[in-house]
Structures are given as structure tokens and as C-alpha cells.
Amino acid sequence: NAGVTQTPKFRILKIGQSMTLQCAQDMNHNYMYWYRQDPGMGLKLIYYSVGAGITDKGEVPNGYNVSRSTTEDFPLRLELAAPSQTSVYFCASSLGQGLEAFFGQGTRLTVV
Amino acid sequence: KNEVEQSPQNLTAQEGEFITINCSYSVGISALHWLQQHPGGGIVSLFMLSSGKKKHGRLIATINIQEKHSSLHITASHPRDSAVYICAAPLDFGNEKLTFGTGTRLTIIP
Q1: pLDDT tens, residue by residue, B20-30
Q2: Are strands B69-74 and B99-100 parallel, antiparallel or unpaired?
Q3: How far apart are CA B27 and CA A55, in angstroms?
Q4: Is B9 in contact with B105 (CB distance < 8 Å)?
Q5: Tens-place pLDDT, residues A11-55
Q6: Considering CB atoms only, which of A41, A98, A100 is closest to B90?
């Protein structure tokens, strides 16, 4: 099993550009999450999904969109990149609510 | 204000020392998570515990539900233990979304 795979690992965007952060898991987990990690702050939940076709906002959803067309994939879309979205993004999955979470390796995004 | 508080923020120790990292939270919870973030950035889950104590190798996690406090201990610390240790807890009643602490950066000097 590859676990949770995130791509890309690094990306530099110009203000106003758009991009999609990819996340895939091969553990047949229902729950998937997107977090952002800023210096000196705890991980903040952007969006989460409890199964294919179901997504919900987390703590900091503004400026982002997600979709969950399959159990395996949970892409995060940035439509109009802003400097405030410079962060490290982590995707995670778990078998169920409150159970052990498995994390991807992270994507370091810089918006200039 | 983060409702999951960790201390210390930074900890430097000599190889072989016994390490303790503390985590306190504001409301009753179903379980608390301890995570390790490697210097390269990857995050792995170490423990999930709802009561008592769990042990995995040189790592021990304890939780006191009444005092809303958990500790992570590392025995016979080694430079490869250098990492950021993060605790997380589901603080919203009936909702298991996690609130994360800001992490404790541990550096073990040979």
C-alpha cells in the first residue's frame, strides 16, 4: 500500500493563478481531510469528506474548493491564489471518525 | 486562542535523557492523538488513547481524563527522536474533527 499520496511536493504560484493539489489513498478509507499548516500554528482543517460525493467545510475553507468523486481521490482546488494561501498543505485519511489518521507528505505552496 | 495547549514549545536535551512533553485541552474528549512530524515534514500518528497509558518501544503516552491532560514520554532519547511532536483532540461535542496543538520541537544532541 502506498498510503496517502500527495502531489506536487512543492509549487510556486503567482497571485491570481489557480491550481489543484492532488491527494489519493489506497486504504479504502471513507474519511479524508485537507489541512494547512502555518508557522507557529496548529494544523487547521480546510475541508473534509466522509465518503464519495460528500464534502463539508472545515475551519478555514475560504479560497478553496474540493470534490470527492471517488473513495480514493480528494483534490483541493485553489481558484485565485493569494499570498495568504502560502502554507504547507497536508491531506489525511482515516477509516472512520475519530480513528487513526494517515497523512500525506505535504505540499509546500508559495504564492508570490 | 488554541484550546489544545502544548508545553514546552521547544525542548533541547542530551542523548539518553528522559523526555516529557505535555498537552492540555479544554473540554472532555473521546480520545487524544499524538503525532510526530519529521524534519522533512511528513506526519505520522504515534498514539491514539482514551484512558490510561500506551507504550510503543521507547515512547509512552499517558492521559488523565479528569485533569484533561496528556503526556508523551521518550525514554533513552536518541538524536533520531528529533522532531516536532503534536497532540490533537476532538473538541466539538459530537464531532470528531481534530483541534491540533502548535507542537513541541524536540532536539536531541549527541
Answers
A1: 999 999 887 88
A2: unpaired
A3: 26
A4: yes
A5: 999 999 999 999 999 999 999 999 999 988 889 999 999 999 999
A6: A98
Residue A110, all three cell numbers: 508559495
What Å distances lie between residue B6 and A54, A64, B81, CA to CA? 33, 29, 18
What does DSSP say about strands B99-100 and B59-64: parallel, antiparallel, or unpaired? unpaired
Residue A39 sits at the chain B interface (C-beta within 8 Å): no
Q: Helix (H, G, I), strand (E, B), or coil: what is residue B80? A: helix
Q: If you ran DSSP here, which 8-state letter would residue B40 be given?
A: T
Identify the three-state secondary structure at position B16: coil
- The grid coordinates listed for B34 are 499524538
Q: How far is B91 from chain A (nearest CA, A)?
A: 11
The pLDDT confidence band at residue B97, using thresholds 50, 70 and 90, is: confident
